[in-house]
Design goal:
- The chain has 2 helices and 4 strands; from the N terminus they run E-H-E-E-H-E.
- It is α+β, with helices and mostly antiparallel strands.
- It has a 4-stranded mixed β-sheet, covered by helices on one side.
- The protein starts with 5 loop residues before the first strand and ends in a 17-residue tail after the last strand.
- It has one domain (about 5-80).
Length: about 90
Amino acid sequence: MTVRTFLDISTAHVKPSTMALINMGAMSMNTLIGDHGAMLHVPSDNTLVPNYPEDLLTVLDHARKLNCDYVLLDGDADLVETLPDYADEWD
């Protein structure tokens, strides 16, 4: 049996334009899109996703450092103090 871990963080850690790309399915990774966010697979390194926006790469790096397989970008999740916060860019 395989058990996977995920990081649950606020969507405010990515820019609205990045979240729009995720919601359009423009990211070439396994993604589950929901009404209030999305769950993304964390690749083994960022060279596998070189054209991703920098804000998303920062989130993926953080998740990788915590040995997470997935990131849940959740509109209701907490902010992580050590990550950039784009809350002021959201409506």
